[in-house]
Structures are given as structure tokens and as C-alpha cells.
């Protein structure tokens, strides 16, 4: 059934026309050119993001061959989202993030609510690893603890450590003679230097952290005309790929099981990755952009009497497709000020939106911006 | 004086790598168990600050093998440097267990040593990966080793490793950053003369440092470790290289720059570490013993298992699809 659905999606994706004119302002959707422009900006501003070519047989011809999708590797995820049950009292802890600098106006109204700031986890990490009974398929109505139920979908007893029988019995201590004094021993839980080693964190009992890392990819979804986010996770202790059930532990309960699914990654022949379904991206992005833009324009009209000509246009940097201008014209510093949010910032804003879906994966390094 | 302790490499296999291995095994290798060249990559070490507790958390000293590991000219991830190794797949778990691992390991160590004596740094990060792939169950048994030479006597530091900004000016570090950003290097040399900052490859040591006083000679490397007082594994063979060729300099001490600033620091805070290391002279020309088998999650010397069934088995994927 799922396979048929995926075939259908593939065909639909193939048949849907490439968005030509910009609908960024009205619909929150962007064209491939704008995706490239926004991606260039992201990669320029944040060295952790870079363009990838992907599998040559899966090239999308509406994107430059060397700019098929964006990737950042090794994004840290310190806690499980399932341990962050959100309650009313937490509303007080919401924190306004200012990214006024983004629009080069320093406008205080350009703020964003960060809901999970500074909140202690409600459950300890031990509970996260506990596998409940496998839920009945009919339990779909029960939205509470959906992500917990996803945890239950894990193959029974699938802890991070494989079954003992499976590890070939071949510990070979005699392979290396004695302890080597110059090999750093596994760091203790609380080293004097104040830096905690990620692999040791779960060992410390009562510590709420269990570090995972994620490779995060952003592709352009031709059908929905928005960016789409993909996640591949690793356990920092075993350094093996996370199972789907484990990945769902890092998705906020409102979204797990509904908008996040495991699908074939479009730029690889074989890779399966968790993805946030993009069907609502455009409308969310539209609202966010509208609000940001409104604030910016209001601010401008207040500050300058000749605010009339400010609305003239949204500066769309025309991406030539070969990316030649990237180095010559750093998109970071807008030459023309006062035009509201430019499409270059689209992905920066998009990441803030994604951060609300996967609150504990630090995809949004832009707060330091 | 404290003994320098190196943070061992921790291998990280991308799911794409297991797919590539599966294809290689089915389409190319079949029952062939000869060694195959393999490439991996690593970046400078990363740490992040936990927003809730304020602790700085060091991520692992990772070396990654990805989907392009078996290609001749793999595309490297941004800001990373390549490490080349050999890969050997066994057809049965019994062969995997019974094989003479010491011999395989020593073969690699010998090649590294030979390249050191020839004056090349290309093979300093050479590694070995042995696997057994249970393709029907999507289970992969694997064991990495990263041979590194054990220096006798051991390398020591004066005092502790300190933040690089204490011994280098912002201008120097910025120059190193822009040089490495354009051309990532595993190992490099830095000199500062009359406010010009230059970066060169380690092979040019003799000419590059000809007119530079020993105190201003800096040895740098892309450091995959993020631990404050443990430089990463690649430094170990680099020091073996330097000790072999420049034993008197090694006794005087090298200033080492552990490069950890791949991402631009916006607040002027550098993460790189630096320290002076030295070693008493000894038998520099004799091949030292080597260590480097990776430990499993239990901290023992043993292979690891990657169970990819949840991500690769079509039936499993169909089950969780909604």
C-alpha cells in the first residue's frame, strides 16, 4: 500500500510543473531559483551548511547540478523531545528570540517564540528508553503520547545494544599488548576541564542527557514548492544509525506520527530518511513571512516619511543557475535596505519553523546570528 | 610535564555506506575477499553548549565513511579532509572471527611507516576496516582500526593545552582559517614573519622553517577531537613523522595547533587548542609498535554490529508507514 502511495507521489512529482514565477509573498512557496538563492545565503552565513550533488542518476534538472540539496552533518540532539511534555505552565517560559538583524532594520518586533527554552525535562532519560507494549493499530485516536507509542513500535526489546547472541564472541584483549599510556582513556563523567564527552553522557546515571547526532538535509519539493527537511540520526554511544522509532522520540508529540514519516530520500537510490511532510509548510511560511514583513514595513514607514517607494519590490536575487555570482556577491549584506524580508532569508526562517517540530535537534544555529 | 594523551578516532558509518557495501558485495566482490581501497573523512572537532545546563558538550572524535567511500574520487563533505584505508569483507562470520587480525593490522602499520621514512604524510591517517555482512538480516559486523605509532618515550607537554588565542594572534588564526577554508588540509605548517601569515604542507618543513626560529614554528592539524586536553588521533602519526625526520627539533619541542574552527566564530571566540610537545631522543629510526583497534561500546576490543533492518528491510518500512 505504502509502495503504491510512493509511486503515486513520484509520478505526481514528475508531472507537476516547475514553479516559474515567484509566489513567495502570496503563498509562502518559492521557485527553484529562490531555493538556490536562499540556500546560497544559508551556506554563506553558516559554514555548517553546504550544497550536495547527490546521486547522479537522481539529478533534478530544475536545480543546478552541484546544488541539488543542502546538508549539515553531526547536528547535536541532547534530549528526547518525548521527555518535553508541554504544559500550560511552560508558557511563562516561552522566550522571545529576536532576529531583527535579519531584516537589517533592528526591529524589535521581529521576534519568534521559542517554546522549549530553558525547560527541564520532565522525565529522566531512563524512561525514554523504556519500550511500552506494542499499541493496537486502532489506538490512533489517542493523541496523547503518540510519540511514546511510536517508541513502542520499535522491534520488541530493541535497546541500543544488539542482542548478546548477535555479537560475535571475539573480544581480543591480547590484540594490543597492555594499556597504551598515550591513548586517551574514556573520559570520566565529570572531567576537571568542564567539558563533557558525548559518548559518556548516558553512563552518568541521573544525567538527563543522551546525545545523538543528526545529518539534516533540505531538499526542494517540486510538488509543494517548498523546502523539505530530512533527518538521519546516529546514536553517539554506539555510533550506529537510529531506528525510525528512535527518531520519532526526537519529534515533538504534536507532529510525531502525523507529519513525520520515513520515506526514500529523493537524491539517493537507497537511503531512507525521516522527513517532515511539506503539505503545511507553505501556509505556515506565508503567515510567518507576512508577519515579519508587516513589522518591517511598519517600522520603515514610521522611520521614513518617504515610505511609499519602499513597497516597490521584493529583492529577488536572480540566481543564474551556475552559481557563479556566489563568491563575488556575498548575499549577506543587503545592498538595498528597507525592502522587508528578502527571499534569501527564507531558509533561515524555515529552520526556525522546523526547530519547533524537532525541538531538541539543534538545526537552528541561527540564534547566534 | 604531562604525557600527551590522544583521543582515539570513533568511526561513524553513514547508512549510505552500508548500502554501498551491499551493492559492492552483490555486484562486484561477490565471494572475493581481497582488500579494496576505501576512503573516509573527518572534520575538526565540535562541541556545543547545552542550553539548559550551560555545560559544554564535546561531540565524538568521529571519522565518517559515507556512500561514496568506494569511489575513486569521492566527493568530500564540506570542510572535511580525507583519510584513505583498506576494506576487507569476509564471507562468513567464522572467517571474520578466525582471521589473523594482527597480521592485517601490521601490514597497514608497515605501509604507514614506510611512507614516513620516504618523507610523505599522505598515509598518516591510513586505516583498516574488516566486515562481515549478513545481507539477509541487514546486519553488518565491522571493526575499524586506525594504526598509530607508540612513541618510546612518550610525548609530553609543558603545562596543559590552552586556547589557541593565548599563543596566536587573531590575525594568524584568521589567516589559517581562510587558508583551510579554501583548501582543507589534514596537516600543515604555520609561520608568521613581518605580519604575514603563511600556511604550507608538512613536506616543506625544511625549506619553510629555514629562517624561522624554533619558537615561532607551528605544526598544525585538523583536529577531530573536541576534548580540551586531548588532541585527536591524527596528531600521533604526524609526531612520529616529525620525530623520524627532525629528532633534534622534536627534543626541543614543537608548538602544535589543534585546529577546531571549521565554522566561523562570530563572537571572536576560537575553539582551537595549542600546546608545546617534546620527546626525549631515542631510537628515532626504529619502527615503533602500533596500536589502534577501535573499542566497542562496552569499551572492549571487539567488533561492532550495525543493525540496519529497521531502515532497510522493506517489510519493516512498510509496517511503520502510515
Q: What number is the mean pLDDT of chain A?
A: 66
CATH topology value of the largest domain in chain B:
Cytidine Deaminase, domain 2
What share of residues are in beta strands of chain A? Answer: 5-15%
Low-confidence stretches of chain B: none
Number of strands of chain B: 18
Structural descriptors:
heterodimer; A: 369 residues; alpha+beta; 6-stranded antiparallel beta sheet; two-stranded antiparallel sheet; globular; B: 322 residues; Cytidine Deaminase, domain 2; 8-stranded mixed beta sheet; 6-stranded mixed beta sheet; 9 helices; 18 strands; Autophagy-related protein 3 (chain A); protein transport (chain A); Atg3/Atg10 (chain A); Atg8-family ligase activity (chain A); autophagy (chain A)
What does this protein look like?
The complex is a heterodimer of chains A (369) and B (322). Chain A has helices spanning 2-15, 24-27, 32-45, 125-129, 146-152, 244-248, 281-303, 325-328, 346-357; strands at residues 50-52, 69-77, 95-98, 111-114, 195-197, 212-221, 226-235, 260-264, 272-276. With 369 residues, chain A is an alpha+beta fold. Chain A has a 6-stranded antiparallel beta sheet. In chain A, strands 3-4 form a two-stranded antiparallel sheet. The two termini of chain A are 45 Å apart. By secondary structure, chain B is an alpha+beta fold. Chain B folds into 2 domains: 2-150 and 288-320, Cytidine Deaminase, domain 2 (3-Layer(aba) Sandwich), CATH 3.40.140.70; 156-278, 3-Layer(aba) Sandwich (Cytidine Deaminase, domain 2). Chains A and B meet through helix 1, strand 2 and strand 5 of A and strand 2, helix 1, strand 5, helix 2 and helix 3 of B.
In short:
The complex is a heterodimer of chains A (369) and B (322). Chain A is an alpha+beta fold and 369 residues long.
Q: Secondary-structure map with pairings?
A:
The complex is a heterodimer of chains A (369) and B (322).
Chain A lengths: L1 H14 L8 H4 L4 H14 L4 E3 L16 E9 L17 E4 L12 E4 L10 H5 L16 H7 L42 E3 L14 E10 L4 E10 L8 H5 L11 E5 L7 E5 L4 H23 L21 H4 L17 H12 L12
Antiparallel strand pairs in A: 1-2, 2-6, 3-4, 6-7, 7-9, 8-9
Helix pairs in contact in A: 7-9
Chain B lengths: L1 E2 L6 E4 L1 H15 L6 E7 L4 E3 L6 E3 L3 E4 L15 E10 L2 H6 L2 H17 L9 E8 L4 E11 L6 E2 L4 E2 L6 H13 L4 E7 L2 E5 L4 H4 L9 E5 L11 H12 L1 H6 L1 E6 L13 E6 L11 E4 L10 E4 L1 H4 L1 H7 L2
Parallel strand pairs in B: 2-6, 7-8, 14-15
Antiparallel strand pairs in B: 1-10, 3-7, 4-5, 8-9, 9-17, 9-18, 10-16, 11-16, 12-13, 12-14, 15-16
Amino acid at each position: 500500500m505504502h509502495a503504491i502511495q510512493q509511486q503515486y507521489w513520484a509520478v505526481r512529482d514528475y508531472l507537476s510543473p516547475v514553479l516559474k514565477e515567484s509566489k513567495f509573498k502570496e503563498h509562502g512557496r518559492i521557485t527553484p531559483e529562490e531555493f538556490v538563492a536562499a540556500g546560497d545565503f544559508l551556506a554563506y552565513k553558516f559554514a555548517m551548511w553546504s550544497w550536495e550533488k547527490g546521486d547522479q542518476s537522481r539529478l533534478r534538472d530544475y536545480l543546478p547540478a552541484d546544488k541539488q540539496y543542502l546538508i549539515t552533518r553531526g547536528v547535536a540532539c541532547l534530549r528526547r523531545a518525548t521527555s518535553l511534555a508541554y504544559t500550560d505552565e511552560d508558557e511563562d517560559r516561552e522566550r522571545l528570540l529576536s532576529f531583527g538583524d535579519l531584516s537589517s532594520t533592528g526591529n524589535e518586533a521581529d521576534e519568534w517564540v521559542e517554546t522549549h527554552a530553558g525547560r527541564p525535562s520532565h522525565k529522566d532519560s531512563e524512561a525514554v528508553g523504556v519500550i511500552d507494549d506494542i499499541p493496537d493499530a486502532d489506538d490512533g485516536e489517542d493523541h496523547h503520547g503518540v510519540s511514546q507509542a511510536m517508541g513502542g513500535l520499535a522491534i520488541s526489546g530493541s535497546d541500543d545494544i544488539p542482542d548478546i547472541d548477535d555479537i560475535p564472541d571475539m573480544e581480543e584483549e591480547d590484540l594490543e599488548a597492555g594499556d597504551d599510556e598515550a591513548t586517551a582513556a574514556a573520559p570520566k563523567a565529570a572531567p576537571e576541564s568542564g567539558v563533557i564527552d558525548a559518548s559518556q553522557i548516558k553512563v552518568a546515571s541521573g544525567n538527563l542527557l543522551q546525545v545523538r547526532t543528526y545529518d539534516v538535509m533540505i531538499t526542494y519539493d517540486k510538488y509543494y514548492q517548498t523546502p523539505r527537511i530530512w533527518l538521519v540520526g546516529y546514536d553517539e554511544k554506539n555510533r550506529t544509525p537510529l531506528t525510525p522509532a528512535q527518531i520519532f522520540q526526537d519529534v515533538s508529540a504534536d507532529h510525531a506520527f502525523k507529519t513525520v514519516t520515513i520515506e526514500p530520500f529523493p537524491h539517493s537510490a537507497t537511503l531512507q530518511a525521516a522527513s517532515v511532510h511539506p503539505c503545511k509548510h507553505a501556509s505556515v511560511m506565508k503567515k510567518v513571512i507576512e508577519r515579519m514583513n508587516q513589522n518591517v514595513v511598519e517600522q520603515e514607514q514610521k522611520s521614513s516619511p518617504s515610505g511609499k517607494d519602499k513597497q516597490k519590490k521584493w529583492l529577488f536575487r536572480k540566481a543564474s543557475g551556475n552559481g557563479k555570482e556566489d563568491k563575488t556577491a556575498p548575499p549577506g549584506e543587503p545592498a538595498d535596505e528597507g525592502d522587508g524580508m528578502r527571499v534569501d532569508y527564507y531558509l533561515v526562517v524555515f529552520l526556525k519553523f522546523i526547530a519547533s517540530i524537532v525541538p531538541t535537534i539543534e538545526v537552528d544555529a541561527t540564534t547566534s546570528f | 610535564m604531562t604525557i600527551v594523551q590522544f583521543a582515539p578516532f570513533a568511526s561513524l558509518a553513514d547508512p549510505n555506506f552500508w548500502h554501498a557495501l551491499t551493492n559492492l558485495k552483490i555486484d562486484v566482490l561477490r565471494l572475493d575477499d581481497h582488500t579494496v581501497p576505501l576512503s573516509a573523512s573527518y572534520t575538526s572537532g565540535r562541541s556545543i553548549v547545552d542550553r539548559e545546563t550551560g555545560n559544554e558538550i564535546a561531540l565524538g572524535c568521529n571519522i565518517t565513511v559515507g556512500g561514496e567511500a568506494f569511489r575513486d574520487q569521492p566527493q568530500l563533505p564540506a570542510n572535511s579532509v580525507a583519510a584513505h584505508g583498506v576494506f576487507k569483507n569476509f564471507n562468513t562470520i567464522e572467517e571474520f572471527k578466525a582471521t589473523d587480525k594482527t597480521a592485517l593490522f601490521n601490514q597497514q602499520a608497515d605501509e604507514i611507516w614506510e611512507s614516513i621514512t620516504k618523507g610523505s604524510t599522505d598515509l598518516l591517517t591510513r586505516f583498516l576496516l574488516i566486515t562481515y555482512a549478513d545481507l539477509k538480516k541487514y546486519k553488518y559486523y565491522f571493526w575499524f582500526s586506525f594504526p598509530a605509532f607508540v612513541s618510546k618515550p612518550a610525548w609530553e607537554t609543558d603545562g596543559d593545552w590552552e586556547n589557541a588565542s593565548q599563543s596566536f594572534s587573531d590575525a594568524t588564526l584568521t589567516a589559517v582559517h581562510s587558508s583551510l577554508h579554501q583548501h582543507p588540509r589534514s596537516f600543515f605548517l604555520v609561520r608568521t614573519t613581518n605580519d604575514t601569515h603563511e600556511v604550507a604542507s608538512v613536506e616543506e618543513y625544511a625549506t619553510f622553517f629555514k629562517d624561522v626560529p624554533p619558537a615561532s614554528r607551528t605544526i598544525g592539524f585538523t583536529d577531530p577531537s573536541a576534548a580540551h586536553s586531548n588532541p585527536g588521533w591524527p596528531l600521533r602519526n604526524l609526531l612520529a613523522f616529525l620525530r623520524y625526520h627532525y629528532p633534534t627539533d622534536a627534543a626541543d619541542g614543537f608548538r602544535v595547533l589543534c585546529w577546531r574552527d571549521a565554522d566561523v566564530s562570530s563572537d571572536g571566540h576560537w575553539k582551537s587548542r595549542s600546546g608545546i610537545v617534546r620527546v626525549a631522543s631515542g631510537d628515532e629510526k626504529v619502527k615503533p609498535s602500533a596500536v589502534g583497534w577501535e573499542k566497542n561500546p562496552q569499551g572492549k576490543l571487539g567488533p561492532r554490529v550495525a543493525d540496519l533492518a529497521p531502515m532497510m528491510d522493506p517489510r519493516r518500512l512498510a509496517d511503520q508507514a502510515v
